Description:
The chain is of the alpha/beta class. It has one domain (38-138, 178-310): 3-Layer(aba) Sandwich (Rossmann fold). It is 46% helix and 13% strand. It is built from 14 helices and six strands. It has a six-stranded mixed sheet. The longest helix has 27 residues, at 172-198. The two termini are 40 Å apart. The model is unreliable at 14-40 and 199-223 (pLDDT under 50).
Amino acid sequence: MVMNRSTPNIMLSVISTSYTTLLRYGKVKVRSLNTISHSKPTQRPKRIILIRHGESLGNVDEKAYVTTPDWKVPITPQGRKQANEAGVKLNSLISADEFIILYYSPYLRTRQTVQEIVRHLHPKQIISSREEPRISEQQFGNFQNVKEVLHAKQERHDFGRFYYRFKSGEAGLDVYSRVSSFISTLVRDCQQYAKAGYNLVRVWMILIVFLFVTVYVSDHSNISTFQEKVNVVIVTHGLSLRLFLMRWFQFSVEEFENSKNPENAQLVVMKKRCVGGHRWYVLDEENRKSLNLPSGCGVPKNVYLHQLDEEK
Length: 312
């Protein structure tokens, strides 16, 4: 069959006519044609995988920030090793026929981490690779006085990370705000990539339904290549990573304050779950424990509120 721009419309027209006929004779039980034609299923990736950068020079020596801008601090040899190990883990987690949308902080240490990670991925797996300033590290100020920064970090520990503001820098709340803005972009990007052709299998699945007439069509949004084959990978910083999780899973400021940074180059995995027409992400249980998050922080609050996880 030769396909052109009009082919999907012709196919849908034929299927629509046959659909009406089948309903008349009671052969197939389905939702109304209007529901199928006009519904707009939300495109969501199979997984969202957050990775903290490999060990940086600043992680082992605070004096690095005195003469080097924070965004130019490199990773150490140990950090490169950790980043390579993260690449191996990512490769084993993602199947060879799956794809990746990659976002990373502009900081040198995150870019170097990405360089090591992608060595273990096939170039064709990466749909896009984008530098994203909104997932940068919290701003502590410009060139830093070690004693002042150490004092401020101790003060932050006593005051609380979320609201404490560094002199000439940011509070955790500021990072939370820009990460929230990034999440909105991430969702829109996923929708755009799906429209660009990463769910083309849907047309063929509709054709299969027409040919065999044995399928109970209850939720056509589930047959999406995008949702089953695409992963979002975000390489960022410890605090930004935790604030991303805080915003996504809606856990409280107090719960955030009790959480811990992931290890350098640790993979934090959010996997999609589907029950009926509902979709949400669940944080990997080992990740949740390692970040010192309560059990309720691994699932969006609405899942518990509406008891979605208990649906059969």
